[in-house]
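Structure, all two chains, one model.
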Amino acid sequence: MDILETLKTLWESSGFHSFLVDGGWKNLIMIAVSCVLLYLGIKKKFEPLLLVGIAFGCLLVNLSYFGAGSADALYHMDLWDNFLNHDHPDYHSYGAIMRNGGLLDILYIGVKAGIYPSLIFMGVGAMTDFGPLISNPKSLLLGAAAQMGVFLAFFGAVCLGFSGNQAASIGIIGGADGPTAIFLTTKLAPELLGPIAIAAYSYMALIPMIQPPLMKLLTTKKEREVKMEQSRTVSKTEKILFPIIVAMFVILLLPSTAPLIGCLMLGNLWRECGVTERLSDTVQNALMNIVTVFLGISVGATTAAERFLSLETIKIIVLGLTAFCFSTVGGLLVGKIMYKVTGGKVNPLIGSAGVSAVPMAARVSQMEGQKANPSNFLLMHAMGPNVAGVIGSAIAAGFLLAVFK
Amino acid sequence: MLDNMLIPAAVEKADELSIGDAAVTAVFGYSVVFAGLVILMIVLYCTGAIFKSKDAKAKAAAEAAAKKAVPAEPAAETKAELPLAPGSAGHVKLFDVPDKEAAMIMAIVADKMQKPLNELHFISIKEVK
């Protein structure tokens, strides 16, 4: 036995060797990126439930052995390229993925088919109290206004040379709604899923840093000090009727929103109807956790170095931040209009909660309001626009899907 | 419904989207979101109005029933005749709230506002059922 030859073969078959050939250094960079994301998720608690999974998926796919396209690999980009290639025999063949795919390929089917984002929406619906929105329906205006960033970023992306499908997927980052961003991107621009998911979840985690400077810039101290009147109490019947009415109305308006709005409202109906507590509990906890495990790791797997490290990713990161900022601005501006129209009864700070990061954006409104006036309690008032933003971003996604699919 | 109108009007090939088309799509999209949520708002106001009028009727019926019965003296009125506690800012009327719970609520509010309790004047505390 030639020991040297054996050692050479072992070395060449190892992942360490592949870092040194065929652009393997890019994988090293992505491994460093995944470590930074793990640090942000674990130490800084940036959306840890999803970011830790995404970061570890990114780590796994970029460890060169797994990314080398071998039959044993966890994730095969070539299989998904074939899946999307009209001329390939495996076009839209989940069977081919099941036959030849690795663990992450099989988990990714749930992302590709739009199953995970919809199930997450079901969990969000089961966890959300729409009472503040029902008691104050004009909150919906703030939820609509805060979609401004979606469409401005979409326009910006087209100006920067992205195709319509890609621009739509980038724009939806401004909705501050991770599942919606993933849902739309897998349908329109699956090649951008990794950077868009990472940008969306990172910016959502950074809301307490992104929003307050804009809130202070666009509002006066007098406006921030406004104390809002307590909203009316919402009856149980109204809470039960709400998901049914919203599902019927929004799905009839934009059928492409059916998976997201349908699941969101079904989850909420289970919560409110009072006779399905077991289901509501399962959706809120067990199912939500299971889906989060699958979603995080399989989205992370799409961040292979050869696709992720590009100028496009940098553009997406910048456009995503722009989208977030303009969504906040949109909500605040309509909040200011409502302040004027109502003679100072509405605190414009609740407008920034129109971005749908629930409940983080509402908490930021509460904190800023209390800084201006310690006796101010805006949380429940801000929850109205916050949950309206969830519906608004789903409608925005439905519109973009209807136009570009 | 709207999908059927949008799809034929959509840009034939997304790859060939011009900046002008993108601007029109963005403005149209933002308008659709607004229109959708405004209509939903109107629907919610309508259902809310129905429930409010139902509540008002139920309240009126309850009040009428209460008038027939002997009115119970609120605890606050008897307490109002008591002398003021030294250093306090005035009397507080309690409706269906025990003294201990009222004291706890006032202490929490004072703590949250970071103001001494004797500088705050609570007018009434009522349990919302």
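Residues 84-126 of chain B form one domain.
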